[in-house]
Amino acid sequence: MIKVQDLTKTYTMGNTQVHALRGVKLEIGAGELVAIMGPSGSGKSTFMNLVGCLDRPTGGEYSLDGVDVSRMNDNQLAEIRNEKIGFVFQQFNLLPRTSALRQVELPMIYSGVPNRAERAMMALEAVGLADRHDHTPSELSGGQQQRVAIARALVNDPRVLMADEPTGALDTRTGEEVMAIFQRLHRTGTTVVLVTHEWDIAQHCNRIIRFKDGRVVSDDPVETP
Amino acid sequence: MIKVQDLTKTYTMGNTQVHALRGVKLEIGAGELVAIMGPSGSGKSTFMNLVGCLDRPTGGEYSLDGVDVSRMNDNQLAEIRNEKIGFVFQQFNLLPRTSALRQVELPMIYSGVPNRAERAMMALEAVGLADRHDHTPSELSGGQQQRVAIARALVNDPRVLMADEPTGALDTRTGEEVMAIFQRLHRTGTTVVLVTHEWDIAQHCNRIIRFKDGRVVSDDPVETP
Ligand SMILES: Nc1ncnc2c1ncn2[C@@H]1O[C@H](COP(=O)(O)OP(=O)(O)OP(=O)(O)O)[C@@H](O)[C@H]1O
Ligand SMILES: Nc1ncnc2c1ncn2[C@@H]1O[C@H](COP(=O)(O)OP(=O)(O)OP(=O)(O)O)[C@@H](O)[C@H]1O
Ligand SMILES: [Mg+2]
Ligand SMILES: [Mg+2]
After folding, report:
1. A99 in B contact zone (CB under 8 Å)
2. Is B111 on the interface with A (CB under 8 A)?
3. Residue nearest ligand 1's atom 28 by CA
4. Residue A196: CB within 6 Å of ligand 2?
5. CB of residue A91 inside a 6 A radius of ligand 2
6. Looking at CA atoms only, how far is residue A48 from chain B in angstroms?
7. What DSSP letter does each residue of B72-91 carry, written as one string?
8. Coil, strand, or helix at residue B186?
9. If you measure from the C-alpha of residue A42 to the centroid of ligand 3, how many angstroms do you get, rounded to a whole number?
10. Does ligand 2 have an atom closer than 6 angstroms to the CB of A40?
11. Which of A32, A134, B50, B221 would you call most buried, defined as having the most Cβ atoms within 10 angstroms of its Cβ?
12. Are B37 and B209 in contact (CB under 8 A)?
C-alpha cells in the first residue's frame, strides 16, 4: 500500500538547511496497523505529511497503492488524498467558527457523498461527541477537538488512515476508545499508520517503526501478549 | 497561594448552558507541585484558565497569594497575571511568524526586564532548543513548539507556573527533561500546577487532584516510592 525508497526532506531557511528526513526506506502493506515512534523533532510528522500526500519530498520515491506519487502536482496530490487518505493532524487543524458537525461533513462535500449530516452525526457518536455537534473549536476542550479531527478523518471510509498523535490530548479511557475504533477499521482492511509517544498505544499495533534524527532506526513486530 | 471556594463556570451558547465547573473548593499552598487529572471534557482547562486569571468565574471566590481576584476587571487580571503567573497553554498559543527567541522575550518586554535576548536564549537552552531559536512555529515540530511555550512561561520567574498538559506532545525522554525543570522550580519555591493525562508524569508531583464532570472527585498525596 505504502512504499518509500530513499525518502528525503530538507527544509531550507535562508542559508541553513534542516535535514528532517535523511533517506527513509520502508514498506507498509494493506491492512497493517503500524505505530511510528521517536523523539521530538526526529522527523515523524514530516514523514506523515509526505506519505499523507500533504507535502512533496526533496528526494526519493513514494508509491501509494501502486501509483507513483513522488512527482505529482498539487491538484493530483489533493485528488488522491481526498480519495484514499484520512488524516488526523497533530494540531487538529479544525476550521475556526465551524461547528463539529460541519467539520466532519466537509470531506464528504468534496467527494460528493449523500446523507452527509447523518453520516457526520454517526462519526461524532462513534467518538462520543454527539452532544457537542453544534460547538465550534473554541467551545470544545482539547481532547474534544482532537476527537472531532478523528471523526472527520474516518467519515469518508479512507483506504489509509494516517493519525499524528491521535491520543495526545486524551485521558487513558478516551484514548482506549479511540484505539478500539482504529482496531475495528484495521480489521475491516483499512491501513492505519499512527504516530504516538505512548507505549501503551503502540502495543495495540502490530508493528513499531522508530525514527531518530530523520532516519528509521528500528522496525519490529509487536509481540502479542 | 491559591484558594478557591465554590468556583463555578457556566458557558452559555444560545439557549443551552454547559456547566464546565460546578462549585470547586480547594487550596494549593506556596511551593506545592500538584497534578490535575481527569477525563477529556471534565473541566481541567476551564479550572486552569480561571486560576491562571485568563477568564472570570461565573460564581464563587478565588484568591491568589492572599488577594481576591474573583471580581477584578480585565486590566487588573492582566497585571497580576504578568506579575505572578507563567502559563503553558494546552495548544501552546505561540504567535505565528515569530521566532522562538522572540516568543520567549515577549513576557519580559511587558515586565521591563533587562538583557532579554540573553535570558531568552538561556530559557531555550534549558528546554534543548537553542539551535532552533530562529525558527517560527510552522518551522518547528509539535513537541518543539510545546517546549518554546514552556520556556516562555518560565522566563519571567513566576511565583506560580500553570502548565496545561505540558508533555502531551513530547516523547518520554523529553517529557522527563521538562519534569526535571518543573521539579527544580518547585524546589526553589515556585508553586507548580500541571494538568496531565500521564500517570508517570503525575507521579513526579506531590499531590493529585482528579476532576470529573466539572467537580473535584479526589485529592490525594502521591506516596513517594
Ligand atoms: N467556550 C466554551 N463554550 C461552550 N462550552 C465550552 C467552552 N469551553 C469549554 N466548553 C465545554 O466545557 C467542558 C469542559 O472543557 P475543558 O476544556 O475545561 O475540559 P478539559 O478537562 O480540559 O478536557 P481535555 O482533557 O479534553 O482538554 C467541555 O465539555 C467543553 O465542551
Ligand atoms: N517548515 C520547516 N522549516 C524548517 N524546519 C522544520 C520545518 N518543519 C519541521 N522542521 C524541523 O524538522 C525536524 C523534524 O520535524 P517533525 O515535525 O517531523 O518532528 P516530529 O518527529 O514530528 O516531532 P514531534 O514529536 O515534536 O512532533 C524538527 O527539528 C523541526 O524543527
Ligand atoms: Mg510531530
Ligand atoms: Mg483541556
Report:
1. no
2. no
3. B41
4. no
5. no
6. 12
7. --HHHHHHHHHHHEEEE-TT
8. helix
9. 8
10. yes
11. B50
12. yes
Single-letter amino acid, residue A8: T
Whether the CB of A42 sits within 6 Å of ligand 2: yes
HEC string for A146-212: HHHHHHHHHCCCCCEEEEECCCCCCCHHHHHHHHHHHHHHHHCCCEEEEECCCHHHHCCCCEEEEEE
User: What does each C-alpha distance from A170 to A21, A55, A204, B38, B192 come to in angstroms?
Assistant: 28, 27, 16, 10, 22
All three cell numbers of A185, joined, read 477499521
Residues linked to residue A16 through DSSP beta bridges, in sequence order: A13
Q: What is the largest CA-CA distance in chain A?
A: 51
Positions of chain A with pLDDT under 70: 225
Instruction: Give Cα A57 to chain centroid, integer Å.
Output: 17
**B108-134: b (≥16 Cβ within 10 Å) or e:** beeeeeeebeebbbebbebbbbeebbe
Residue A209, C-alpha cell as written in the block = 517503526
Half-sphere exposure of A64 (CA within 13 A, CB side): 23
Please, which residues have CB within 8 angstroms of residue A66's CB and are 6 or more apart in sequence? none
DSSP state of A85: E
Contacts of B11 in chain A (CB under 8 A): 139
Tens-digit pLDDT profile for residues A77-120:
999 998 999 999 999 999 999 999 999 999 998 888 899 999 99
Q: Is the C-beta atom of B20 inside 6 A of ligand 1?
A: yes
Average pLDDT per block of 10 residues along chain B, 225 residues long? 97 92 97 96 97 95 94 90 94 95 93 92 96 96 96 94 95 94 94 95 96 97 81
State which ligand 1 atom lies nearest to the alpha carbon of B18.
5
Task: With CB atoms and an 8 Å threshold, state whether A141 touches B45.
Answer: yes
Mutate to test the interface with A, among B197, B201, B208 (most CBs of A within 10 A): B197
How many Cα atoms sit within 13 Å of A31 on the Cβ side?
Answer: 3
Count of residues making up chain B:
225
A13 in contact with B at a CB cutoff of 8 Å?
yes
